[in-house]
Amino acid sequence: MLHTAGLADRLRELHELGSDPELERFPDSQELLLVLLHADRTAGQLTQPEHQPVNVLGEAAVLRTKLWQYLRELADAKQLRAIEDGRDAGVPWDHFADALCVTSKQGAYQRARRLKAEQLREPGEWRTPEVATSHERRALTEERAERARITEQVRRFPLAVRIARMLLDQRDGLVVSGMSQYWLEEIEDTIDDRTTATERANFTGFIESFVRNILQLSQETGRQAATTADAQHALERATDFTLHQRPVIPRRDDRT
Asked: pTM for the whole thing?
């Protein structure tokens, strides 16, 4: 977040160094638009003081540029929000034409798309409607993937709970440390309060994270991950759940 008040304070200091003839009328740092309007109006009257290493006029110009850019981006975001609020309220595109200084509903639509693109673009991307469309498609794809993940993990949740209870019952026979211990504690703390689909999907993922970390710990230390037959059985069930049942598979009865 840009610290605009600090930059405005520095701009005032530069105007003081540059002998701004209206310095006593320099606006408060919180009034950013007024600060910039004052700086623009008096910029041509500033002078470079002798024996001053700072390029007063140059630094002031850079600060004005930076602050105007901030206001432009802020205004774009606020304007887009106003357009979206109007569209949500049923306002047709042609009613925005005059407000956006265009001559048609197509122009208003394209202007809104460009504003959207500016909000979504990554550094180095052009500000075009195509950029907005690309980001929207990507977001839609990610949203669909997340819904599919939740649906699949919720389907697996009842089995995940049974396996989790087996692991907790045999925890004394499991060799855990670091992240494997963390995930086992997370399983214990959350097993009885998973009510929403997202919570159940995430809990199913806890089992998978535990398995990956306990197997990694075993590989790194050269020690067995389980020290009793019952703990080994519980871990095998959890490993099978993680490694072999992760893809979408036909529903089947689990009688264990």
From this structure: 0.47
